[in-house]
Amino acid sequence: MKMTCKAVLLVEDDVVDAMTVRRALADLHVTNRLVHMENGEEALDYLRGHANERPCIILLDLNMPIMSGIEFLRIIKSDHHLKRIPVIVLTTSEEQRDVIGSFDLGVAGYMRKPVDYQQFVETMRAIDLYWTLSEVPE
Question: Is 62:110 a contact under the CB 8 Å cutoff?
Fold first, then answer.
């Protein structure tokens, strides 16, 4: 994420989890702007807004009201303009069907949110390192 100055889109309904992501990215000195949307519908509106910056990565929770993460994935991965944006699922779900469903819909990774903050920072460090080294289509 450090490699570019593009935004990171966080789709997360839990305020505490969103603050934890923000804090972990700050602790890791990730300079990308974090755009936070509280559900899939808001995130779709953001992604479809022509004036909005296209994110370099989407961090997606699965268990959200209004539109679940899986529903959101189904929509963006079938949209010609959005399907190449890499999505990392960042969730508490340990359901195998969620893991399989996410990968069937083309996620780049599936990470469980650790309860321990230091472990959470290490999870975010791994995501940051991966995307810093990875080639991402424009």
Answer: no
